Amino acid sequence: MAKRTEDKYVKLECKDCKQINYRTHKNKRILKTRLEMKKFCAKCNKHTLHKETK
To answer: What is the sign of the dihedral through the CA atoms of 37, 23, 35 and 1?
Structure first.
């Protein structure tokens, strides 16, 4: 099994409050665009859109 290196991990930032809440991985060879997910933000206390940061 291949090890996941740190460069494959991406941080997800809440679009409303700009707080980084999640860290996930993605295959950068397949997904060229930025990742967007609807996740729960503890600071906003609701489900909001989270975008991938640099």
So the answer is: negative
Q: What share of the chain is helix, strand, coil (3-state, %, to 5)?
A: 5, 45, 50
Q: What is the dihedral of CA 37, 40, 45, 50, to 10 degrees?
A: -20
Q: pLDDT tens digits for 17-37?
A: 999 999 998 888 888 899 999
Whether the full predicted model's pTM is greater than 0.90, yes or no, is no
Which of the 8 DSSP states describes residue 15? Answer: T
Give the integer Cα–Cα distance in Å for 26 and 48. 20
